[in-house]
Amino acid sequence: MSTTTVPSTPAAGSSPQRDRVARRVTWASLVGTALESYDFYVFSYAAAFFAGPLFFAPLGAFGGTLSALATIGVGFIVRPLGAIVFGHLGDRIGRRRTLLLTIAIMGVATGLIGVLPTYAAAGWLGAALLVLLRLVQGFSLGGEWGGSILLATEHASPRRRAFYAAMPQLGSPVGSIVSAVAYLVLATLPHAALLSWGWRIPFLLAIPLLLVSLYLRWSIDETPVFRELVREHRVDRVPVLTVLRRRPLALLVGVGAALLGIGSYSLMNTYTLSYGSSALGYDYDQLLLATTIGGLLQLVTIPLFGAWATRIGSAAVVALGAASTAVIAVPMYLLLQSATFPVLVGMMIVGGILPTLSWAALGGLMSDLFADHYCYSALSIAYSVAAVVSGFVPSITQLLAGATHGAWWHPAIVLVVMSLVTLVAAIVAGRMRASSRSARAVDPVPARP
What we know:
Oligomer: single chain
Helix content: over 70%
Structural class: mainly alpha
CATH architecture: Up-down Bundle
Radius of gyration: 21 Å
Shape: globular
């Protein structure tokens, strides 16, 4: 390994041309993360309502629901493996080419779920194929988020990096809204038609969305940062090993910082929908509508929170989101026990907006912690490990419900724990920020391959 020190990013400042390019690239990143989010939520809604009776019918109502929720988690198990593989590729062959590959795999896998045979048609074969495709989805998604963040930030000026790091996060509410609207439209179908063929349509919609995403990503250039890495022969031989050796604490901090942003979505948009419908007697469509309204508001708040992060720092915004979520978690689930529809909407908005503070600033916080020649690997691994934990949040909460005999506070405890973990991680990240910036500037780089 060489000990040469070089700048980690080009020194060029902001310019109208650079800002135009950054905006165009950000759209390509956003659409990709929207497809990722759509793929996640379209199955999450199916898991809460369709997957149990369609694929796990012999297990009964509770067993079918638990198996369906666990199938959500299965898609996250292989994310770290995907993060290692695609993180390596992203740091070796480039951000753009790697993201074309991840999104193609993801979109095709989602579309294939829409043609699976159910238990009634093929017994356990359908469930086995469903689990297999969830594994394929999880593998591809392991390399999607980190690359999308880098695609946006590495085209942006240093002054606006925190803002552009927030923009791909818009993909989460966009994907949630599109998938929710798809199911609200399908809800107008007769119940028999919905269970027979209607549930397949949202999965099949992933194919045209995939084509749009591929076109947008094909039309953009590789990032200036990666081109500089190649030009200066700073491409790391094994970036995964480098990040594990040099920045293990930063990697753990990244995992903790990501937990609330991902886990709160799993809790609110999957478990709470199922819990509110089955245990509290709310109309499922009303819950879905309340969640969608909250998602629409996030289209405004995420850019605002990203702009705020440019002023006070990404770590501070993540910490504020975590602290405020911890404060409102218990009162929110207490009110949920007997809320009117307007109160329900208000709760879904508050329960979504406060964790969004942590979600919007997450990319900026994490990209500040790692040097550019292993940043794709570092971001992907940290995010995917947090996603593994978050993917099992619905099933863990379901088990907690059984252990507490359905006590009203059981989901609030899960939300508080995730909030406190993220709060501690954000505080540590804020203290590491100055040293990590130095590391990005003077980190020893690999010798010429």
